[in-house]
Amino acid sequence: MTTILVAADARWVRDQVRAAFTAPDMRVVEVTRGQDVREAFAREHPDLVVLDLNIGNMGGIAVALDLRLEESAGRLERARILLLLDREADRFLARRADVDAMLVKPVDAGILRRCAKQLLGTPQATGV
């Protein structure tokens, strides 16, 4: 079973991600606060973490940096991180946060699935 952890305070973003990954072999775990991602990651061991750039109290960049710091300290395994950006100009910040992929919102469900397949290394992956 593939587990996707999505962190967004906006319901429409969480709904969009959940809709993209509706399948019998997929499970979506949602958190609404950036500060809850580390604990959810340690508990759920997701295959992919989808972060919204703007989460009220701790945005996607800060969460990605936190996960990378925890990884470098040996407290968490490597997270595959997909960051959902608000605009193209945010790509610079995303690269600095060492995320694995980034997409600009709103994101079509098909593009989201293809990107996830590429990150997870499934055979049907296509370039995004």
Condensed summary:
Helices cover 38% and strands 20% of the residues. With 128 residues, the chain is α/β, with parallel strands linked by helices. It has one domain (2-120): Response regulator (Rossmann fold), CATH 3.40.50.
Structure write-up:
By secondary structure, the chain is α/β, with parallel strands linked by helices. The chain has one domain (2-120): Response regulator (Rossmann fold), CATH 3.40.50.2300. 38% of the residues lie in helices and 20% in strands. Helix 4 links the parallel strand 4 and strand 5 (101-104). The radius of gyration is 13 Å and the shape is globular. Residues 123-128 have low confidence and may be disordered.
